[in-house]
Amino acid sequence: MSRASFTTNSSSSESSSEPDAEVYAEQTRRTVLLGALVTTACLGCSAHAGANEDPPGADERPQKGDVLVFSEGDKEGKPITAADLPAGGPPLHAWPKDPNTSVVRSGSRLNEILIIRLDPAELDEKTRARAVDGILAYSAICSHAGCPVTAWVKSDVGDKEVFKCMCHNSEFDPRAGAQVVFGPAPRRLAALPLVLADGSLSVAGNFTGKVGGAQPG
Ligand code: FES
Predict the structure, then answer these.
(1) Range with the lowest mean pLDDT among 51-55, 150-154, 162-166, 201-205?
(2) Which terminus has fewer CB within 10 Å in the chain: N or C?
(3) Is residue 164 within 6 Å of ligand 1 at its C-beta?
């Protein structure tokens, strides 16, 4: 993600003067060093965005009993209820929130969640068993290289809508446990068990599986 700041230059032999070559080599060395520093710094930031300012618990993974709140839009920070979820999608983006301390666990981007409501008849057996009234939650972080999964679009390989990561076009089917149906992602998105009580959604347990991709994120 932060690799755009890392510049490479492959043409090196057109200028023949030795001083120029030395200057060029020194400039290249500085560029590479600067790029490495920026890349390292950004990867650290993305793993714990604002970690120094976050209250305790903000970067902990979702805990049993956490409520789910909007992570964006007009209702940012407000609890998500079943009534907020349009039948058949698109998904809402959410953070878990500790109901005792009111800490929103937005200190790690790995905590962002996709919540979607689907027709239970469309779900495979295992996914239906985990759904509450057709509502499912998955990690919003792609299992390929850790980009956020942002799109809900018709699949390249079918006629249904799927979660899509626009970084390298991986697609995940939420009706089948968010398994990969297209693209380079090596594994499904982690699922997050939910409970529904009085219309409010909360976390019932840990993520099922590894969250995120091969790169730090
Ligand atoms: S990071 Fe999602 S497809 Fe590559």
Answers:
(1) 51-55
(2) N
(3) no
Atom of ligand 1 at shortest distance to CA of 169?
Answer: 3
Q: In the chain, where are the structural domains located?
A: 2-47, 67-203
CATH number of this structure's domain 67-203, picked from the four choices 2.40.37.10, 2.102.10.10, 2.40.440.10, 3.40.50.2300: 2.102.10.10
DSSP E strands in the chain: the ranges are 67-70, 92-97, 113-117, 135-139, 151-154, 161-165, 170-173, 179-182, 194-197, 200-203
194: confidence class by pLDDT, cuts 50, 70, 90: very high
Please answer whether residues 52 and 44 qualify as being in contact, where contact means their C-beta atoms are separated by less than 8 angstroms. Answer: no
Distance (Å) from CA 152 to ligand 1 centroid: 15
Q: Is the CB of 149 under 6 A from ligand 1?
A: no
Does pLDDT of 167 surpass 70?
yes
Return the best residue to mutate from 1, 156, 164, 167 for the ligand 1 pocket (most ligand atoms within 8 A of CB). Answer: 167
> 11 C-alpha vs ligand 1 centroid, how far in Å?
30
pLDDT tens digit string along 74-108? Answer: 999 999 999 999 999 999 999 999 999 999 999 99
